[in-house]
C-alpha cells in the first residue's frame, strides 16, 4: 500500500468543495498534510472552504496540473457514484497522482490491500485480508472486517459494518449504520439505506430501504 499518504509530500489539490470536502480537510489536517486549495464544480460559487482558497473550477484542471501533481477527489457519494467515477478517470488521464488518504485515528491492517484515490476517515477499521480497490470512501467509524472485498467507487458510510467475507460491487453505497452479514455478496451500483440489516445476497442496481431486514 505504498500509495497511502503517511508523511508530508507535495501539496494536495482537493477536487470538490461540498460537505465531503470539509470532512476530508479535517483528515488531511490531522495527518499534517499541506492542502493546495479547492477546485469547485461548474455551478458552485468560488468560495473558500474552511479557510482554503478556491483555485478554480473543473475546467481549470489542465492548467492546475502544471502546478500540482497530487489530487484527492472530495465530491461525496450517496445516490450515484458517477460524478466520482468521472473525476477519477479524468484526473488519472491528466496524470495526477491519486494517493489514498488514511486518518491517523483509523486502522488499516498491514495484511489488507488498497488501491488509489481512497479516503479512510476517522476511526474506521479495515482488517486483515480485506481488499479495497480504487476511489472509495470508508467513512468514520465504519468497519470492514477480515477478507472483505470492496470494488472501486464505493462508499461505506458512517458506522456501517461489513462482517467477514462480504463483497461489494463497484459503485455501491452502504448507508450509515447498515450491517451486512458475513459472506454476503452486494452487487454493482446498489444502494443500501441507513440502518438496514442485510442477510442475503443483493443483485446489481437494487435499492434497499433503511431500517429493514432483508
From TrEMBL:
<keyword id="KW-0808">Transferase</keyword>
<dbReference type="InterPro" id="IPR020019">
    <property type="entry name" value="AcTrfase_PglD-like"/>
</dbReference>
<feature type="site" description="Increases basicity of active site His">
    <location>
        <position position="147"/>
    </location>
</feature>
<dbReference type="InterPro" id="IPR018357">
    <property type="entry name" value="Hexapep_transf_CS"/>
</dbReference>
<protein>
    <submittedName>
        <fullName>Acetyltransferase</fullName>
    </submittedName>
</protein>
<dbReference type="InterPro" id="IPR001451">
    <property type="entry name" value="Hexapep"/>
</dbReference>
<comment type="similarity">
    <text>Belongs to the transferase hexapeptide repeat family.</text>
</comment>
<feature type="active site" description="Proton acceptor">
    <location>
        <position position="146"/>
    </location>
</feature>
<dbReference type="Pfam" id="PF17836">
    <property type="entry name" value="PglD_N"/>
</dbReference>
<dbReference type="InterPro" id="IPR050179">
    <property type="entry name" value="Trans_hexapeptide_repeat"/>
</dbReference>
<dbReference type="InterPro" id="IPR011004">
    <property type="entry name" value="Trimer_LpxA-like_sf"/>
</dbReference>
<feature type="binding site">
    <location>
        <position position="155"/>
    </location>
    <ligand>
        <name>acetyl-CoA</name>
    </ligand>
</feature>
<feature type="binding site">
    <location>
        <position position="76"/>
    </location>
    <ligand>
        <name>substrate</name>
    </ligand>
</feature>
<dbReference type="GO" id="GO:0016746">
    <property type="term" value="F:acyltransferase activity"/>
</dbReference>
<dbReference type="InterPro" id="IPR041561">
    <property type="entry name" value="PglD_N"/>
</dbReference>
<keyword id="KW-0677">Repeat</keyword>
<dbReference type="Pfam" id="PF00132">
    <property type="entry name" value="Hexapep"/>
</dbReference>
<feature type="domain" description="PglD N-terminal">
    <location>
        <begin position="12"/>
        <end position="77"/>
    </location>
</feature>
<keyword id="KW-0012">Acyltransferase</keyword>
